């Protein structure tokens, strides 16, 4: 079993980092810093809590003036790159939110995001002063470095995983749109992914807005086509007819669904279910094929999750065959429960057939 990501923050890592700090700031107490980080409940802390423990502990052993503490980090940040050093921008989040530190904190976040990512650290600034911070995000959207441009979009996602929800942007995403407009023709795929993820977040609360953006952007350029397709993934999984039609997927009567089989009708948790079917079309058309599992949850209700099989074209008179297996082995991200589940096949947003089976 793979070691959890949080395990990268171990005693060896902390001592190694402490030695880097000591080179820039001779008064740094490495032993005290490591002992403070590892004190009490360290073993039970999850990843983000460990990051916060490290940044808070740094504040106790770096110079007490924020400006002087940042100067120490500026001296070593080029040696501290990658995911493990998310505590650099987190340090800014913890200690740099006072108004008198605004400009310095923006400089620090802009700098640190190029080494790891400041997408989480900008969110308290957005919550505290959204207008001022969105002006900063629009400025960052024009930055020559792709990591900073990505921060402009990623940092203001309404529902960033692991990040604080931006309730004000869930209610009204309008302030985000100028940033996304600036970045829609960015040359970086890294930035495109963030723009698409931001729009996908917005689609969950304002689907009409994202559908209109999709209609405006699609077919104009390969960059915006890519963004729109990934931005609409939630709407596609919901079978939204307007979005499906943008990409040429129609619930065409010429598509035939044939020879559907699914077995067994009863499995135990840890086993798998198999299914197969054929698709035939009377004319050349595009097809998007998915299957959905209606999972029984802990309280007995059912919740649907959609899985994509393929997006392809089918010629007139052609028959295509598909077969899949789906495992009901417990995962860290999904636990299975006893009860009647259902598997359905979806073609171009329309459910073609379903099969009920028992999980025990």
Uncertain runs with pLDDT below 50, 5 residues or more?
Answer: none
Helix content: 40-55%
Radius of gyration (Å) = 25 Å
Tally the structural domains: 3
Strand order of the largest sheet: 2-8-7-4-5
Distance between the termini: 25 Å
Question: What is the residue-averaged pLDDT?
Answer: 94
**What fraction of the residues are assigned to beta strands by DSSP?**
15-25%
Helix/strand structural class: alpha+beta
Shape: globular
The tally of helices reads: 16
Number of strands: 8
- For the report, how would you describe the main beta sheet? 5 strands, mixed
Pfam families: DNA_alkylation (PF08713)
InterPro entries: ARM-type_fold (IPR016024), DNA_alkylation (IPR014825)
Protein name: DNA alkylation repair protein
General description of the model:
This protein is of the alpha+beta class and 360 residues long. It folds into 3 domains: 1-118, no CATH class; 150-247, Alpha Horseshoe (Serine Threonine Protein Phosphatase 5, Tetratricopeptide repeat); 255-359, Immunoglobulins (Immunoglobulin-like). Helix content is 43%, strand content 21%. It is built from 16 helices and 8 strands. The strands form 2 sheets. The chain has a 5-stranded mixed β-sheet with strand order 2-8-7-4-5, with no helix packed on it. Strand 7 and strand 8 form a beta hairpin. Helix 3 crosses helix 5. It is globular and about 75 Å long. The protein starts with 10 loop residues before the first helix and ends with a strand. The mean pLDDT is 94. This is DNA alkylation repair protein. InterPro entries: ARM-type_fold, DNA_alkylation. It comes from Ectobacillus funiculus.
């Amino acid at each position: 079993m793979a070691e959890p990501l949080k395990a990268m923050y171990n005693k060896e890592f902390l001592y190694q980092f402490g030695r880097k700090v000591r080179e820039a700031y001779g008064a740094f107490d490495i032993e005290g810093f490591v002992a403070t980080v590892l004190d009490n409940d360290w073993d039970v802390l999850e990843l983000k809590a460990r990051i916060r423990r490290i940044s808070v502990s740094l504040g106790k052993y770096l110079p007490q003036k924020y400006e002087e503490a940042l100067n120490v980090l500026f001296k070593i940040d080029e040696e501290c790159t990658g995911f493990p050093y998310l505590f650099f921008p987190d340090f800014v989040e913890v200690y740099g939110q006072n108004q008198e530190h605004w400009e310095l904190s923006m400089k620090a976040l802009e700098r640190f995001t190029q080494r790891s990512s400041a997408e989480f650290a900008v969110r308290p600034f957005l919550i505290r002063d959204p207008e001022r911070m969105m002006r900063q995000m629009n400025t960052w959207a024009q930055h020559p470095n792709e990591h900073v441009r990505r921060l402009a979009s990623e940092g203001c996602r309404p529902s960033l995983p692991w990040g604080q929800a931006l309730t004000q942007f869930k209610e009204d995403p309008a302030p985000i749109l100028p940033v996304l407009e600036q970045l829609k023709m960015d040359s970086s795929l890294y930035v495109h992914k963030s723009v698409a993820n931001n729009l996908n977040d917005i689609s969950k609360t304002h689907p009409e807005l994202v559908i209109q953006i999709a209609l405006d952007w699609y077919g104009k350029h390969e960059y915006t086509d890519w963004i729109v397709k990934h931005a609409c993934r939630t709407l596609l999984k919901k079978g939204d007819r307007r979005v499906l039609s943008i990409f040429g997927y129609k619930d065409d009567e010429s598509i035939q669904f044939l020879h559907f089989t699914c077995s067994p009708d009863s499995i135990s948790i840890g086993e798998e279910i198999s299914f197969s079917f054929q698709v035939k079309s009377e004319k050349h058309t595009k097809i998007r094929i998915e299957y959905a599992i209606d999972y029984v949850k802990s309280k007995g209700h059912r919740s649907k999750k959609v899985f994509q099989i393929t997006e392809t074209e089918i010629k007139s008179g052609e028959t295509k065959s598909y077969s899949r297996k789906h495992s009901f082995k417990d995962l860290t991200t999904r636990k299975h429960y006893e009860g009647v589940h259902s598997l359905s096949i979806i073609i171009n947003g329309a459910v073609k057939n379903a099969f009920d089976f028992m999980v025990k």
